[in-house]
Amino acid sequence: MVKHTILPLTVQDAVVRRRKKVLVGPVSMTVAPSGLTVVMGPNGAGKSTLLRLLHGMERLSQGKLQWQVPEPQARRSQAFVFQTPIMMRRSVLDNVAYPLITHGIPRRAARNTAAEWLDRVGLTDSAAKQATVLSGGERQKLALARALIRGPEILFLDEPCANLDGRATREFEALVLAAHAGGTRIVMATHDIGQARRLAGDVWFIYRGALHEAASADQFFASPQTPEARAFLQGDIVE
Amino acid sequence: MPTLLRRGQFGATVCQARTFWQTMPTALTPCAIFLHPPLSNQKNVTIKDKKTCAACAVPGLCRINQSGTGIRTKQTNAMNEILQGLIQAAQLIFSLDRDLIEISLRSLYVTVTAVAIASAIGLPLGCWLAVRRFRYRRFVIATLNALMGLPPVVVGLIVYLLLSRSGPFGVFGLLFTPTAMIIAQVVILTPLIASIAHQAIRELWAEYHDLLISLNTTRRQRIGTLLWDGRRALLTAALAGFGRGIGEVGAIMIVGGNIDHATRVLTTAIALETGKGNFSLALALGFVLIGLAVLVNLLIHSLSRTEVSGRW
Ligand SMILES: Nc1ncnc2c1ncn2[C@@H]1O[C@H](COP(=O)(O)OP(=O)(O)O)[C@@H](O)[C@H]1O
Ligand SMILES: [Mg+2]
Fold first, then answer.
1. Which of A191, A203, B23, B241 could be joined to B193 by an S-S link, Cβ 3.0–4.6 Å?
2. In what residue span(s) does the ABC transmembrane type-1 domain sit (chain B) (predicted)?
3. What are the two backbone dihedrals, phi and then psi, of residue A130, each rounded to the nearest 5 degrees?
4. For residue B148, with 0-12 CB atoms within 10 Å meaning exposed, 13-18 middle and 19 or more buried, which class applies?
5. From the alpha carbon of A47, which atom of ligand 1 is closest?
6. What pLDDT, in 10s, does the model give residues B154-174?
7. What residues of A are in contact with residue B215 (Cβ under 8 Å)?
């Protein structure tokens, strides 16, 4: 089990601004030490920006993030899977080993661990291939293995299945659930309502850059409190 | 035997060989066939045989008349010269001509060393400029791009002044040595290599940015990763530098002095032979130069390809 040291995370009035336009915020919330949160909302609502904000990749114009440990230490225990997986121009194995190597783990040990992770995500046969030749589903699995290899306490996923077909999505979801079962805190953005229903422990509904509604999954899907969330779940176009 | 190989053509001393260019009178009517101006019996130009023009030094091609003016004695034709050049190039290569090998190796030595040094500076610099945001970044990049077009002659002149006896680095006695030529080429090649590297790395950085930031890498690690993963593009940058360096003549002529058996390289030999009117020999050297450049490119590319199939 992962030992929790950096969570919970407290967010106070965080605002991300670009050229005077508010993209997200002000957001105040607490990210609990365990759970699987699904971040939902229409396109452009600010899901990606919110995840990047939590991950420390966006400069805050206002407000602050408070981890249980100092910021640099907290960064080491987080990982992020991007909507479009970034394939380094190296072999699949070296892609997965990369985060360990940058953390000072000897190359050989890093490769051995990476090989284990490739086995777990089912990419062993592709280990020696160049990462850029992988299919979309394989790329996301690689990105997931690369994100998990350092044993992060919290994993952010930004619409990881947006470009995957049904089978690849199912395989990916199984891996995310396995990571969650292993004790990793998961925060995952999606606009796929089916996926949210399958995975969510609790839901954050983002609307126009604000945390519009937050509830446990059962409650959110059964009786959404805001008209926008209700419309979104019914499949209406929400802007 | 090609005239290139004839020693002591202008008398034995280095000084004479260099001053040859400067002593030729320009006011008289030019020797019609050759690119050099007509010759008078200047004291710095040794004319061994009254029948041979010292500038061309090709017996029977050019003759000195009573007034000391070189006159054309044989008609030549450009196509013929090219053909002759090819034949002569083949002869020089297959006979493993010693002087040819010497100047070719010197060309390679100077340019390869200069490219290695310029790459060692330019590649990390280009990469650093792509990764680092700072106040005058745009200005630095614009300057770099402008420096890419530095006229080699001017670089040569400046390096010459810096290295000359009375210059700040005169004590090292580097002027008219291959080291001086390397220095001049490093100055010419570094901005070129840095600029090409910067452009290639900027694209790679745009692609990797989020991942490397998310993984909390240090700036040093980012640069190392980009250099490694961008190595094929960087190889192209280095090869572009090699192409520019091996064909460069202006700067190395000035700082090297084109001294036989000391600083003569392919390009300066070509300039010399052309000046003397030995077009076919000049062309032969030109073909050798082109061959060398192509060979090095092919070699590097085949090496990088084996590496690619081996590792990926
Ligand atoms: N780099 C940027 N510059 C300006 N606006 C941006 C930038 N990135 C995102 N935005 C804007 O921020 C808003 C939220 O974007 P995003 O977080 O990507 O939404 P989502 O992930 O929910 O689709 C959008 O209106 C988008 O246009
Ligand atoms: Mg998004």
1. B241
2. 104-300
3. -75, 140
4. middle
5. 22
6. 999 999 999 988 888 888 888
7. 98-99, 102
